[in-house]
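REQUEST FORM: STRUCTURE PREDICTION
Request ID: SP-0412
Submitted by: Lab K.M.
Chain count: 1
Length (residues): 203
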Amino acid sequence: MHTKQICTDYEQGRLSAIHMELLPDASWLTGEYRLTPKPDVVTRVNDFDYLHAPFRKLAEIYANYLPFREEQMSTIAHEIMVILAGQWQNQVWDQVSPRMQAIIVYIRENLHRPINRQDLAAQINVTPAYVNMIFKRELNTTPSALINRERMTKAHHLIRNQGLLVQEAAYRVGFNDPFYFSRVFNRIMGIAPSKVAHDRLTK
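STATUS: Completed
RESULT:
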């Protein structure tokens, strides 16, 4: 991990980078996996000071040999990737059809309530089977996978940025069972929601 800061009379900037493989026994350079959505070479984020804090913490942990060192580094790296993925997701918007954009808008506006394929189909006047087909064709995913991803992304924002308790965030994104919510959050985000809440309080 390294950081370079640029300050001139004309512009200011800061570059932070982590060199790592995101999957065990796989190599990005040899094409064994690729991120979806695809990241920019340079990612510009709005809240850079917040994002830079985990970079500094990661470097600090790397330089020491404390208990659970690898686990801590993995958790922080996952959080950085989740934050950056939120920026990369914006790139996908211009690549999907207007109908898919309408579906995504509907999902984001209704995360607090149950959403099924029939609801999505009604938004664009097609059959539920056709909804599955355009999700596969345009996003290479399923409606339920995208809904859960949107819910977990929203929940992460509510916990990290707005300071909601895990249970409150779960309810806000349509989960009545906080324990089930925590399992889904951990599976999708690669970090426990309680860890996100704890890190927010200690930073």
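NOTES: The radius of gyration is 19 Å.
Reviewed by: T.R.
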